[in-house]
Every structure is written in C-alpha cells, then in structure tokens.
Amino acid sequence: MKATGTTRSPGAALAALAGAQFTVMLATSIVNVALPQIRSGVSLSDGATTWVVNAYGLAFGALLLAGGRAADLLGRRRILLAGLGVFAVSSLAAGLATSSAALIAARAVQGLGAAAIAPAALALVMEVFPAGPGRGKALGVWGAVSGAGGAAGVLLGGVLTQAWGWPWIFYTVALGAALVLAAASATVPKVPAQVTGRFDVLGTATVTLALTALVWGLTTARRTGWGDSFVLGSFAVAAALLTVFVLVERRHPHPLLPPRLFRTGRIATGNALMALLGSVWIALFFFLPLYQQQVLGDSPLATGLGQLPLAFANMLGSTLAPRISRRIGTTATITGALLTEAAGLLWLSRLSAHGSYAVDVLGPSVLIGLGLSIAFVQLTALSVEGVPAQDAGLAGGLVNTTRQVGGAIGLAVLATLAGTATTHAAAHQPHLEALTAGYRTAFTVGSAVLAATAALALGLSCRRTPAAPAPDRPAPQPAAHH
Q1: Where is the Major facilitator superfamily (MFS) profile domain (predicted)?
Q2: Domains along the sequence of the chain with CATH
Q3: pTM of the full predicted structure?
Q4: Which of 185, 312, 330, 378 is the most exposed place for a label (fewest CB within 10 A)?
C-alpha cells in the first residue's frame, strides 16, 4: 500500500489512526457491563442510567459534523490530537466522579472529544491511502477495530469492574487515549487545511440542539409515555430547530452541510443505510450484557468474556469484507451482511429466562459479528465514495453522525419498547420472565429493522450519481491545495 504525502510509514500511521477509532468505540460500550455497579456507586435512577450511555452517544453524534468541518478548516492532525487530549481528560474525570451529574457531564465531554477524533482520523486514512485496493484494506482494518472496540469494551468493562471497580473502566480509557495521542503525534503526517471560509456556528448550534431535543424526548417517553406534554414539546422543539437548520444552511455562504456533498458518489444512500444499522448496533451492546447479568446471572467478567466470539467474528468479517465485495459486488455484500445480522438478532429473540450462554447467546453472537462488520466496512466505503479532498473530514463526520445519532435514537426507542413489554409481562409472569420478554422484544424489532434495511439496500445502493459535484450557490471559496 502506497501512502500519499510525506508519510514514511503508512502502516504505523494506520495503526495510530485505528487506535484512535478503537478508543472511541471502546468508550461507547465499556460502561454497559458496569451499569449496575455505576448505578449504585453514584445513585443513578433508571432514567439517568440510560443517560450514562446516551450522553456520550448524543454529544458524539450531534457534534460530529462540526468536528469534521473543523478538521477540514483547521487541519485534520491538529483536530485529531486536540480531540484525543479532551477525550483523555474527560475519561479521567468520569472515573473520579462521585455524583450522577458529574458522571453524565464527563461522558458528554467524552462525546465532544470523540466527535473531533472520529472524522479527523477517517479523513486522514483517506489521505494516507489513495482510492484503490490499498484504501479498501485500510477500511477493512478500520472496520475491524470499530467492531472489535465495541465488543472489547464489554470484555474490558467486565474484567475491570470485577477486579478493581467501575472507575477503572474510565481510567483505562484515559490511559489508552493518552497512548494513542503519543503514537499519533509521532506517526500521523501533517496535512494542510483543505478549505477556507467561515465556520457555520449557527448551523452547528441549531442541529446540535435539535438532536438533543429529539433524543431527550425519546428517552423521557420511556418513563412518562409518548403522550406526555414534555415529550411532545421536545419533539416539537426538535422539528422547529431542524427547520431552522435547513433554512440557515440554504443561506450560509459556507454551510455546515453543503448540498454538493449529496451530489457526490453515493453518500446519501450510504448514510441512510448507516443510520438504520446504527439504530440497532448500540442497542445490541446495551441489551445483551444486561440479559447475561440480570437473567443468566453471569458475573461482569463472564459477561465480558462472552463477547469474545462476537469480537473475533467482527474482526474476521472486516478482513473479508473488501474481498467479498470485489467478488460479488457492493449491493450483494451489503444486503447479505444485513440479512446475516438480522438472522442473528432473530435468533436472540428466542431467548429463555432459564437458558444458557452456549444455547442462547453464542451462535447468534457469531452471526451478528460477521454481518455487522461486513455491513459497516461496506457502508463506510459507500459513504465516502468519490468525495473530494476538501470534504473528506466532513464526509467522515457525516457517516459517523448518522451511525451515532441513529444509535442514540434506536436505543431510546428499543429501550422504551423493552420497558413496556417488561411492564406488561410483569403483571402475570415472574421477574426474570418479564425481563426476558423485554429483551426479546428489543431483539425482534432490531431484526425487523435490519431486514427492512437490507430490502432498501437492494434498491438504493445500485443507484449511482455523478462523482463530480456541481457547484453550490453561492459558490464556495477555492480549496487550499497541497
């Protein structure tokens, strides 16, 4: 693989960039196994417990577009290193938190750091590895560490929580971020800023507040019901702010989300499918560890070890994804991967309150790991296909945004459905049976969402648009070349 620019060791640069992505994904799932201990440690309510996960995912997803555009304007390496610094400090603060408010605030700042890291790192991968087989292999590595980071988070969360207590999950993430920061400083090339212009502050503010209001309303609906006035008000605010965002983007000379981005390659298709995949992804790593601990009675360590087959399947699928795509084509690869993951979730929907890991979890985990990793690699590639250098950071931010916001919304909706199913079942079934009924509902709906996504992929991913974008109005200022 030949690198562009001044990179003497593209392999070392890729390792550092993949490490940054791994750390971001690790922080997404490492808290899941430790949630019962965190709940008692800082006196979390049921609703606040969900926000330990959602505060990170929401801040991450809502600020990714801003992070991607900042990387294009200010320099990708600079934004990557700054994001890693913020990430390390906020992770340390989360471990030191003694109250629910401090912990949730630290998780939100973690999300801010991650929103700078992920798009800058992906844009740098595209910079170091030009279009072709080399980039395909690099994206395979990217997919492997992304999926493995989620599974490894559950494993490390279990090991650390059982050995030293829940604060150590955050101390470990802080240490990992610091090490990646040092590695990136030494190996990642300096790439000049790609565009000139003003940062779209108003557009960033409106879309961030809109997404916050949307997910807040979805999360609150779990406790108060969908007809609650506060929930409906949150949805109304989200809709109003999204309308303002669209109007702002049309008038701004340098919009946060320029229309030209959607006239390039198959970006809109890739992001739409990635949002649906993300809606199930984060919820999977939320519900599965809870089932293993609360129903099967597994310890945090056993729960974490139970994620190893999924992690290995994920790494295998990411490695094979480019090869499979070259053999059978992008559309068939994406569709097959989504159906494979849907089959695994459908298998999980048959969970028993008196089951076992070997019977109820192992087989589905392998199917899910393979399908998830292959779909993620191919959808990432689809979402950055044909993007000019000036928009690489923004494209990276967009694909991460759709996955993270889709995940936050999916978790809120599936948690609401699971909670409702559990409440209804508790009226006439024992506690463990009622909990299992809720988890079965979440996995059943998740399987249906992925099956529908596969059907959409058949029709949408075969549509191509011209690779060269038409100019926006008003025309953007010339990109800075190097």
Answers
A1: 13-465
A2: 10-190+254-460 (1.20.1250.20), 200-253 (no CATH)
A3: 0.78
A4: 185
Half-sphere exposure of 262 (CA within 13 A, CB side): 8
The rounded distance, in Å, linking the Cα atoms of 101 and 139 is 37
| CA distance linking residue 110 with residue 108, whole number of Å | 5
**C-alpha to C-alpha distance for 55 and 375, rounded to whole angstroms:** 26
Gap between the Cα atoms of 220 and 399, Å rounded: 27
**pLDDT tens for the chain, residues 1 to 482:** 344 444 568 888 899 999 998 998 888 778 877 887 888 888 777 667 777 877 887 788 778 888 888 888 888 899 999 999 999 999 999 999 988 889 999 999 999 999 999 889 988 888 888 766 777 788 888 777 877 777 778 788 888 888 898 999 999 999 999 999 999 999 988 766 656 667 778 888 898 888 778 877 876 776 677 788 888 999 999 999 999 998 988 887 878 777 777 775 578 888 889 999 989 987 887 898 889 988 999 887 788 788 889 888 988 988 888 889 889 988 899 999 999 999 999 999 999 999 899 999 999 999 999 999 899 888 988 887 777 667 777 777 888 788 877 887 888 789 888 988 998 999 888 989 999 999 999 999 999 999 999 999 987 655 544 444 444 444 444 333 33
* Number of Cβ atoms within 10 Å of the Cβ of 168: 18
Neighbour tally for 239: CB within 10 Å: 13
